[in-house]
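The records we work with from here on pair a chain with its fold. The integers have meaning only within a learned vocabulary of local backbone shapes. A complete example follows; check for yourself that the lines match position by position.

:::
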Amino acid sequence: MAALKYAGMDDTDSEDELPPGWEERSTTDGWVYYANHEEMKTQWEHPKTGKKKRCAGALPYGWEQETDDKGQIIYVE
């Protein structure tokens, strides 16, 4: 595993674990992005896996939750 450390990739239990100085955040519509506090920049891709993700339970892009006159929750595009 020394080769991984040399390449800047720590040997961890989870590939989703963030490197030191990174933070996972999400937008109001559920998209996850990553903040690198050491370099003062953000990106959509996970710094180790290169994958993008979205928080579970978020509505599809362009959809909103509203309440109708009867108090029922409805979803509109």
Summary: The helical segments are 2-6. DSSP finds one helix and five strands in the chain.
